[in-house]
Design a protein that fits this description.
With 229 residues, the protein is α+β, with helices and mostly antiparallel strands. It folds into two domains: 4-141, no CATH class; 151-228, Alpha-Beta Plaits (2-Layer Sandwich), CATH 3.30.70. 32% of the residues lie in helices and 27% in strands. It starts with a helix and ends with a strand.
């Protein structure tokens, strides 16, 4: 029988790593990063108990300013280890604290026909909770002024989206007269496209001269739909 260690290695290599790269991360094995000139925006896979019968693991996220890390100290690694506290982080969290359940979350892989469910659940947790929070923290640390609407300004439109069983708008950006909406949507979701078309029409109808078009993107930053000029 294939051991839990072997299945864990396969899950990381063939499933989790490709999914993270599709979300915009770079890296391999247990450490990944979002490209940024000023910060290390990191995701790490931390191993707990591990033997041939079961492997337990969790995911950590962290943000460290590169200038703080690369201060000339001899022997320091190229980048921080997201699974170790360095004291230089501007933010660090285990993914469990970002999930609705809260607290520590450890996934388990054991031999059997459903061993990959844990990896699939990890991908979903990163896509829907870990990545959006890491991007939000990165924007705040970078002093990004491109944010257009604060979360409390999205309450009404997100309430309407939920009534239509469509994922809410997680954040917005404004640049070059284009309002960009980010959410947990997919290109093949026709219902989400039509409901967001209505939301875009509402945004465009307020007569704000600062933008003339609306673009919808998923949480990984991939373009989905365009409305307006």
């Amino acid at each position: 029988m294939t051991t839990a260690r072997t299945l864990f290695a396969e899950g990381m290599r063939d499933h989790l790593a490709p999914a993270l790269r599709a979300m915009g991360f770079t890296g391999w094995r247990h450490t990944f990063a979002l490209p940024d000139e000023e910060h290390w925006a990191l995701l790490g896979v931390e191993l707990g108990a591990a033997d041939d019968r079961i492997v337990r693991y969790t995911v950590n996220l962290g943000l460290t300013r590169k200038s703080s890390w690369s201060d000339g100290r001899p022997g320091r690694a190229l980048r921080p280890n997201p699974n170790a506290v360095t004291g230089l982080e501007s933010w660090r969290a285990g993914i469990g604290s970002l999930l609705p359940v809260g607290g520590d979350v450890w996934w388990q892989i054991a031999p059997g026909p459903r061993w990959a469910v844990a990896v699939q659940d990890t991908v979903a947790a990163v896509r829907h909770y870990g990545l959006p929070e890491l991007l939000r923290r990165l924007e705040a640390a970078s002093g990004d002024t491109g944010r257009y609407l604060a979360p409390d300004e999205l309450v009404d439109v997100n309430a309407a989206l939920r009534l239509a069983d469509v994922a809410p708008i997680r954040r917005t950006e404004l640049s070059d007269r284009v309002l960009r909406l980010y959410g947990d949507w997919s290109d093949g979701d026709a219902v989400a496209r039509e409901v967001l078309r209505g939301a875009a029409t509402g945004f465009l109808s307020v007569g704000d001269a600062r933008f003339g078009a609306v673009r919808c993107r998923d949480t990984a930053g991939r373009d989905l739909w365009a409305f307006g000029a």
